[in-house]
């Protein structure tokens, strides 16, 4: 007989061989639940086969107990590599419970207890309860059975001592309590149970009394404590999941919790205390409880894993899920969220990046380090470092930042790693991750709330800093107000800037107050209160303030006030420039001795010349170094050619020399005119003038003392040649290098010039 599972018809579920039946099978029939198969044969035999076992199992730490046949239970510990031990039971059980040293099986209101040995089990006793047992849990000494809304807690092996009698057994709840118990659990120290009124009670076995209770809005249907009993997952009547931490009396909702979830298993691997799985018929969801995160404790969903049909999870150890199957066996499944536990060398960058995300979600930083080492990518190291900061793993973060050379972060973390105040440390780490609002909240909740103010000041968040200072450090308000005012001024919010500058005045800090008063002056001017601003600026000792306020007023076209401030600040050039713009020449004249800008002197000189005040104009032109204008005024208006001539000689001004030459030409002083034409490089005009007025000797004398071209010497030589002045002609032919002609003219020189001519002739030869 071949049996197939409808979930996968290609797989054969079982084969039944009827070797003794040689006449063949007659009929087949299933029971309604599909657990039993009846086969009749033509020989008249009736065979009944068990096709699937009830899935009964329990786990305690890494030890599991499960039903392997209707009358057989197997206890195994694959993690510790212990050999499985089987025990035959007297009746088909409806519940199984495993403890540290004991096994319990039972049905209806009766339970049989066995002591676990090395290779066998010893039956201890059987116990009858007051009702049908729904579930049972064991620890090293006690059993707790749930029946008809009550829990009976009793010792498994009574020591029989009188002092212990009261601790041998107890029934919950007490007679005067009117609630029903819906679920319970037993840890090494506590009996924990949930009620229909939504209360979770913690009963401390050692002190034999209640030590904690949590009140939930609706009834609590199932509870699942972690191996240490410090966290409790539970499912309420609305099928919502939560984790309760009795130490801090805090409740955390499990996100994305499916209403079909049947149960929860906590990770038993000692290094992974915050991991648990929630399972339904088809899938297992991996969750991580992030206890020490800078945002506070929270639960995240890490991922999901498909489970084969009819597999019931019993135990979770280091990402390996041990499931019980209907055939009475166990099957191990590796969670998809723990794929990084294999050999990483066979994976490419994309798979390694996904694994890095998994390791960081599960806080497996050592494995994340290995993944980053294989990825050898800066972004991977950065992700690991950020995760370390997020989970407050400061030492590991230092190691990571040191690996990829971020010396700044290493130094910063070294400074804070010894801080014991959790909130203060978390605040620093939140600041390092640029989550400044969170950092502020954490600082304020710490023993050093002033750190929030210091952070806001460092970030130049002056508005927030001001609010914090009102609570934490009122004495800092003036200094923060001043900084905030500077920021507001930069943003153009002059109204509020003025208000904060005024708030910043302390009355006892001179330097700070001067800065605030300077701000008040500038803001008053910008707001249109010019009188107040100018008065404030004049009273203020700072020259720079007067300059800045003057510039603001100048932009506002308030020229007289601007000039006044420039003058008070001894910025005479700027003051004079502004006085010129408002045509206040009298003030410009007063300031001129202090003015160094030639441009201002020039403007003033032009204005005075236009007014006909030539003496003042000349002085201003001289200060402006406008020598041509000085010469022009001396010649045209002040009738002082000597001064003009002196200036031309001093400055060697070409245009000035031309003007002087023109002046002497008008006077008929051709010799002087020729001299200044040569000085102005107008040699052709000078030559022509010398020709016209028979002043060539003068021109020749002047030219001889100047650096002149050969053409000029030749022109003079030709002129003297035409005039039959042989000595002069020879002299200038000699200068222009025409030695033959020069010698000829020297030889023709009249006897009056014989000696000199002979000397020149000898020099020529």
From TrEMBL:
Where it sits in the cell: the answer is: Cell projection, Cilium
- Whether Repeat counts among this entry's keywords is yes
> A Gene Ontology CC term for this entry?
cilium
Looking at the record, the residues that make up the IF140/IFT172/WDR19 TPR domain are: 365-748
Kindly provide the name given to this protein in its UniProt entry.
WDR19 protein
Residue intervals of the WDR19 WD40 repeat domain: 64-338
GO-annotated biological processes: cilium assembly; intracellular protein localization; intraciliary retrograde transport
Q: Output the Gene3D superfamilies linked to this UniProt entry.
A: 1.25.40.470
Q: Which UniProt keywords apply?
A: Cell projection, Cilium, Cilium biogenesis/degradation, Repeat, TPR repeat, WD repeat
Q: Specify whether Manganese is a keyword of the entry.
A: no
Q: Which organism is it from?
A: Ciccaba nigrolineata
